[in-house]
Amino acid sequence: MEKQVILNIEHLKKGYDGLEVLEDVSLQVKKGEVVVILGPSGCGKSTFLRCLNGLEPIQQGSIAIEGIPVEYGNKNLSKIREKIGMVFQSYELFNHLSILKNIELAPIKVQHRNPDEVRKEALELLKRVGLEEKADSFPRQLSGGQKQRVAIVRALIMHPEILLFDEVTAALDPEMVREVLDVILELAKQGQTMIIVTHEMAFAKAVADRVIFMDEGHIVEEGTPEEFFNHPKTERARKFLHMFTFDSIKKKDSQSS
Ligand SMILES: Nc1ncnc2c1ncn2[C@@H]1O[C@H](COP(=O)(O)OP(=O)(O)O)[C@@H](O)[C@H]1O
Ligand SMILES: [Mg+2]
């Protein structure tokens, strides 16, 4: 059975006074699909994700989640944000609230769900990411990797249709990257629809159903991880991938010896 498109972006155009950032970006994401967005710094990846979540006004084009338009400033935006969860590089936890309270806040205050059920689910989710004993701790008592796993739980408890990840391991020490990526890999296995911006190439290869390569506000390439990593079609993609390999260094060594 052909899977249903849940996120539909058509001819999106977005800039910041005078600066054109996204130009004519179109993308369809199907239920259960994991799309990884790669591209050089400054090419518009974060701007793109923020537009999808209604955090930015757009100049042209349209974004719709399950047929409902995402519009900056629209009064239905909080409903839409329940469908589109986002995890940021900087965790965005409330430092004065316990981990449990951080997680429970939105489902109780925004979704008006039953507090007992919310607590039960929060504890289950914390257990799933290996943090059940941190429920009563405060963010300052957690490592970066632990805080990021809490941020993922906080997004998950809203039962989003789609989750957006913006370089969520970029600020972490190397030994904490894996524990966060493992959580995301697990979500992929369970069929969570996700759009992931990352610079972790091995992870991108492992988690993606589809890779999107962006440069200067355009989608330049799109394909399976196998296609993109092993047979990039454009010079720009080859150059980008080259930054993540050490082949050139090896070559220089062998030339000089
Ligand atoms: N709030 C903003 N105001 C003005 N310019 C911005 C803003 N946010 C991003 N930009 C600019 O938009 C371009 C794309 O940025 P961004 O989306 O953060 O790229 P990426 O996430 O791919 O590194 C950059 O030139 C950046 O300087
Ligand atoms: Mg960014």
Which secondary structure elements does this structure contain, and how are they paired or packed?
Elements lengths: L4 E12 L2 E12 L3 E5 L6 H8 L7 E6 L2 E2 L7 H7 E4 L11 H11 L5 H14 L15 H13 L5 E5 L7 H16 L3 E5 L3 H7 L2 E6 L2 E6 L1 H6 L4 H8 L4 H10 L1
Parallel strand pairs: 3-8, 3-9, 6-7, 7-8
Antiparallel strand pairs: 1-2, 1-4, 4-5, 9-10
Helix pairs in contact: 3-4, 3-5, 5-6
Please characterize this protein's 3D structure.
Helices cover 39% and strands 25% of the residues. The protein is built from ten helices and ten strands. The strands form two sheets. The chain has a six-stranded mixed beta sheet, with helices on both faces. α5 runs parallel beside α6.
Give keywords.
4-stranded antiparallel sheet, binds adenosine-5'-diphosphate, 257 residues, binds magnesium ion, 6-stranded mixed sheet, 25% strand, alpha/beta, single chain, globular, 39% helix
Summarize the structure.
With 257 residues, the chain is an alpha/beta fold. Helix content is 39%, strand content 25%.
Note the main sheet. Answer: 6 strands, mixed
Low-confidence stretches: none
Helicity, in percent?
25-40%
SSE string, helices as H and strands as E: EEEHEEHEHHHEHEHEEHHH
What's the alpha carbon Rg, rounded to whole Å? 19 Å
